[in-house]
Amino acid sequence: MKWEIVIGLEVHTQLSTNTKIFSGASTAFGSEPNTQADAVSIALPGVLPVLNKGAVERAIKFGLAVGAHIAPRSVFARKNYFYPDLPKGYQISQMDLPVVGQGALTIQVEPLSGNAKPYEKTVRITRAHLEEDAGKSVHGATQSMTGIDLNRAGTPLLEIVSEPDMCSAAEAVAYAKALHSVVRWIGICDGNMQEGSFRCDVNVSVRKPGEPLGTRREIKNLNSFKFMQQAIDYEVQWQIDTLENGGKIQQATILFNPDTGETRAMRSKEDAHDYRYFPDPDLLPLDITPAMLDAVRSTMPELPTTKRERYTGSFGLSAYDANSLTSSREMAEFFDTTVGIVGGANAKLAANWMTGEVSAQLNRDNLEIAQCPISAAQLGGMLARIADGTISNSGAKEVFRALWAEGGDADAIIEAKGLKQVSDSGAIEKIIDEVMAANADKVTEYRSGKDKLFGFFVGAAMKASQGKANPAQLNELLKKKLAG
Amino acid sequence: MLNQSLQQQGDALRAKTISSVELTQLYLDRIATHNPVLNAYVTVEGHKSLAQARAADAMLANGSAQALTGIPIAQKDIFCAQGWRTTCGSKMLDNFISPYDAHVITQFNAAGAVNLGKTNMDEFAMGSSNETSYFGPVRNPWNIKAVPGGSSGGAASAVAARLCAAATGTDTGGSIRQPAALCGITGIKPTYGTVSRYGMIAFASSLDQAGPMARSAEDCALMLNVMTGHDPRDSTSLVRDKEDYTRELNKPLAGLRIGLPREFFAEGLSQDVGQCVQAAVAEYQKLGATVVEISLPNAKLAVPVYYVLAPAEASSNLSRFDGVRYGYRAPDYTDLTDMYEKTRAQGFGEEVKRRIMIGTYVLSHGYYDAYYLQAQKIRRLIAQDFVEAFKKCDVIMGPTSPSTAFNLGEKGDDPVQMYLSDIYTIAVNLAGLPGMSIPCGTGANGMPVGLQIIGDYFKEAQMLGVAHQYQLATGWHSRAPTL
Q1: What is the pTM of this model?
Q2: CA distances for B122 relative to B38, B89, B119, B186, B211, angstroms
């Protein structure tokens, strides 16, 4: 019988506040060790924590984004253990009463294997709670000593815990990616995985269908989607092999080694800590009033699902385009601003340019949409000239290249480059007449059935108009005239 | 000068009959003479105190002086003071020079008061006799064989012996009131949240509260005016308008209803202490107060509840003393775990280790519900008893401590006997109420007896008035020991 895979994730997202969760020290990444360690970060005797409201607002935003219950009262608790990069000897976290309760996230799963089709799945979120990050132990910084850098100590984290709803590495990765997208979308986390802003712990177990859950092992601190997939694949196979060879799975915390592609046990359940959680007497319970909730709700951006519905509904875009345009909040906002200029009736035109020329150029120059050299206003200005027939599509490409390279304004470029197309049928007819007169022999050939020559006349007339003739008009008039 | 009130000393400073430098030097000389015996101070740095005194004299000269400008105050060594060694009575912090000021220190500095030195205390404020200090026991100036009480024993001894004009203390289970009683001085623990805990080294965060220790209720009121006020750095600091704690000092007592909890006059109370307290109550009746018997049925559970909750919080609060960043680190160790174990085994004294172990135990998986949660429930019942009691009376009175000062070493072998020394004070901390102790007589051995006054929340000004009226009518508070 086949094995069933059960996966749940715990994701630590660093919240994008300027200062720490319980003190005014900076949270900037990459500073000299301990330059952002104030009295509270060092845990000097006598210092006390004061909760950063910005961290609370970000937690609420997340709760709203995943449709979760926001606790009107949640409680900070101390998680006690000794480690050199944990300056107080306890971490302030939330245990029994987390700020965010049950929610859900809908994910698009792209199966990794073969010809299976993409599908949608809803993953339940158990809870999300606020806590502080630890510092870093820097091994080998000095000979035979370990350095302690407390810059990161006290950085706010939102730990997001899912139900064990995922049944494959592909689903786990899709969930992690969707979560990554949401936290960046609502602006609570910069999502920088290299810098540790988004770290995943993956709980994996296997079982035979219909049987109770198997014993899980927890892969800690995965900071790339690729490693996550590799680690899960390896771990699943290891657990299946172990069980099929008559072995038993021991609950354990394990690490993934990207160099070997293997997982390795860090500590077993036997040496699991008793964290002695209890409510932190230095902090009052966190009360979130309906007014606070409303205030945060009013700052919430339109969420990707709502946007997609609007794009396919009101604008008539394809689901594919709607997905592409909501791949990031910056992309969607760029699109919305562009459509704001050209009007909803031309949304399809804007979508084509965004998913076509704009994306291609960004890829070529290896840029994110936020770094796009052309602003949404500039693009909208150009698209408006396509829409009103001022320029042709090929003229637009030239305008686009100029905007990309030199900036400026579409109308000025059209003017300077003389790209305004001729839509005056009298003028076009005059050109056609001249071309036909100069090529009387070919006119005769065409009229005697050599249809292929139509292209020759289009080219010649377009050339004679210096490329400015409105192509649709030119085609139409040329057909009429050649027909005699 | 040494027996003058803070008001009188301040008047003399403002009248320039004495300078702050002269007054400070007077105390420094007295400390030099008597501290070798009393051991009330852990750290005295005269040059720092005198520098502050000179600054105070400048304020006095330019007319910017406030009530306590130029007055030498002793600070309990639990308050971090920038540039001062801050030990909390422990080997663990023997070498710790604080890089910052506690809120209380900031307030006194802003008021122009002089920091006269850091007073001895039970290690991490854990003790009722000052015998757990790493820096040796403090002596009671009324009898140097006797303990001064604890944990603010150094402060109490210093105030009683006139080694400072007034002092700060902290009170987690009676650590201001019990030593005040045993040394014959006046001390008040205000409502929890009134004085910021920022920079006050934590013992049990939900119970710790700072307050003044002085020679009279009037002096305490002036001290409290400086110490209180909202501090955004302490999340449990209450947002309230600044009060003038002297405002009810001269309010007559006619009509005052005094509640006497029958549980405070039962078994365990020394006869001589009981008699002094009854005499004090009789004096209050003469002053126009009426007496009503009340009951605090759950008060008997206060000591066991306290010895679950306070160690639980302490076990976590003291985790930061790990030898990694500051303070003591064991000289020889093999690896990280060994470093932690040796550092904490060598750096903490016996009583602190006992409480860390109790606290760790009651928070452990499988015991949390039976101990910690249960204790929290009883804590609420104890607080509720007081709510009921204050429906019948304005203040509650009783003994501060069941006996007068005992001798050094007398209770050393039995921690429970020591813990019972705070049997009447602990419930007040559990409820978060204000409580004070004033001298009201002497016991059979000639040692001072303290009368405890418990007020309703935020009734400090009323309590100080109640105490002051008694001190106007009697002379117990102005007695001084002969050194």
Answers
A1: 0.90
A2: 14, 6, 10, 19, 17
